[in-house]
Amino acid sequence: MSVKMKTLFIFTVSFLLFVTVTICISYLVFLKFIVNIEDTGINNSFRIFDSILDREEQGLKRTSLDWAHWDDTYNFMVDKNEGYIKSNLVDQSLQQLNLSFIILLDKNNKIFYELDGDIKDSERDILIDKITNIRYKKFFNPDKIEADSGTIYAYDKLFIVSEAPITTSDEKARSNGTLVMGRYVDKGLMSYINKTCKANIAFEGLPGNSHSLSEISISRSYDNINTSRNTKDINEESSILVSMSVERYAHTLAIKYLKIFGLLYIAALFMILVLNNRILDKYVLKRLKLLDDFIERVRKTKDTSLRLILAGDDELSKIADSTSNMVAELAVANNDVKEMDERFRLIMEATKDGYLDLDLVANKLYLNKEWKQELGYISKDESGLFYEHFSKIHPEFIEYLNNKYTNIDNNDELFDITYKMIKDTGEIIWVSERGKIVSKDDCGKPTRILSIVMDVTERKRYEEKILFLSYSDKLTGLSNRAYMEKQFEEIDKDKHSSYFIIMGDVNGLKLINDALGHRMGDKLIYNVSNEMRKICDYKDVVSRWSGDEFIILIKDREKDYVENLITKIKEACDNIKDFPISISIALGYAEKDDENKKSEVVMSIAEKRMYRNKLIEKKSTRNAITSSLLRTLHEKHSETEEHTMRIKNMSFKLGKRMGLPQDKLDELELLGLLHDIGKIGIPEQILLKPAKLTAEEWVIMKSHTEIGYRIAKSTPELSHIADEVLSHHERYDGTGYPNGLKGEDIPLLARIINVVDSFDVMTHKREYKLAKDMNYAIEELKRCSSTQFDPHIVAEFLELLQEDNNCGQP
């Protein structure tokens, strides 16, 4: 659709919409105004009607009072004399007073005398019934002197009625009856009412008293307004419906003038529309057509020397000037592009690098001739080249490259990726692709990529060689410390990583270096590393940390795997036989968890546990601390080395049976050796006394747990078992010493030592007692279960004894 047609369409629609809205608003406003006027007129008509009826009622009321408060009328109610009848109760009186009937009722509300003019007998009975009903409802009161007036609807006629009590002229005598006068609304009165109210009024009787006075009900037709309203009769009952019909003069006249106004309004707007269209066509649309023709001519002829000039000083003339300037600049740019294209073609011919234009939507690829020859492409069209190119990418990098192309960050436009490709000869080469995202779709994904590809195979081999040398240990071939530190940096970045770190230290390396030379020491390191490499899974990262220390990084494994791996490594090192001394390795491990999230913290824990393990390794130099303390204890006390080793071995077997992890087993062995180390601070006369200790001596003896605690706490290598040394004489029921701990508040390792130590003391001879047999010791353990000993540990220990034929031997 042309601009002219669009403009005409917009003008026409706007015109019709404006006219429709304007006419609708005007129509609604006029009608609302007319309705308000009509409602006001109807209310005024009803007020006039009410005032006319009220005036008629008041006039009749005065007449009835004059007759009722007359001595002759009062006396007539007593003797019913004929003179009163002939003088007053005649048809002439009805005519003079403009009445339809006169009725006199006695005290009992019975008709005393009646004058009903030309009322028919059937109508008279209904009228008399309604009149007597008035009296019945108002109840006769002989002291009443006021009159009542109102309306009655009977046999399709509306009567104005007044009733007054009959008394003397001075109004002192008690009433002896009631005078009722009435007239029906005749044609003359109705004509007066209709003329005054400017409406046609009709009446209708309503049954009962179920209707109350309500608002005026209005219904409208095009020509008339029909309204109705209930009104009360003389008995205060809403038994009369007043209907009123009014011609809609104002509405009819308003509609007429509104139509005239609408036609004139539409004609005026149509003239304005035609005039605006002529002006727009002359000053805008024709000039736009010239501009469009000029652009089309330049497109067809490709002649950038053409120019366009539009007269005037408005936006269209400026657009024409800008278009001419743009065409001139395109001519210059076109020459620059030709020169640049020539330079680029010469550059690409002078190198073997590839130029790629990759369309990821149409699955098309443009390749320069040189790169086709280099890799041996055979496809002729761009679609074939697209699929052949991806077929030449090494399978290991297909997914990697696809992700790089389709998942480049929206903020990145430049990229640099390296991957392998396969030449037509089967040779695998490394290529580096550097490119730019030219266009993206609505989701920000690349749709077209331009890039340069070059062969970087030699550089890649050199980099891999340098990288291998920088991250490998020359002696063992394992990863070195620099490589592990890089691994730790990467896993610390991943908040969801799960891993263990095992740290190991070869025992006796210094001794071999000093005694047999460093070449033999290097052989030891190599043999140990070789065993680790064979035992560990290929996914585990095994590295030489420094000197005789090794680190193993284990990712996404369970604790059972780690502990089993430690056992295998220790067994493998024990079986190395190429050296004059036995070979062993101290190992400790730690796991990343919610409290220890950084690799540095996890490795520190593993290192501490490794040093603890060294304390119980005989071939470890750190064992000198343990050996020195035990030697002092054995020299001073009757505790023998055999007893100490029995406690160590038995507690280790019990802890392993209970499923303790390796680090806890190491602590348990060390605790078995040193749980009574505090006895070196107890006087010998108390330690070696064969008789029963006194109360004072027993207090001193019990202090050996606190002395042992202080010794362990002051020795960094032993501080981790200080609480267990302090608590190994606590009882399960809370009656032990020194702190009276109860149940599981007592450290688990202390509860285990308590059971094993008590059993060994009972089954072996001491200077102050004889050994008990096995059955006695077992029964004693059962008896003291849940009081002195943890019942679960006792049960496990008894099962261990049953399985072990030499349970009582060291």
From TrEMBL:
Domain (GGDEF) spans 497-630
Positions of the HD-GYP domain: 618-810
Residue ranges annotated as transmembrane are 260-280
**Key word Calcium present in the record?**
no
Identify the InterPro entries for this entry: CHASE4, Cyclic_di-GMP/3'3'-cGAMP_PDE, GGDEF_dom, HD/PDEase_dom, HD_GYP_dom, HDIG_dom, Nucleotide_cyclase, PAC
The name of this protein is Cyclic di-GMP phosphodiesterase response regulator RpfG
The chain positions of domain PAC read 415-468
Keyword annotations for this protein, in alphabetical order, are: Membrane, Transmembrane, Transmembrane helix
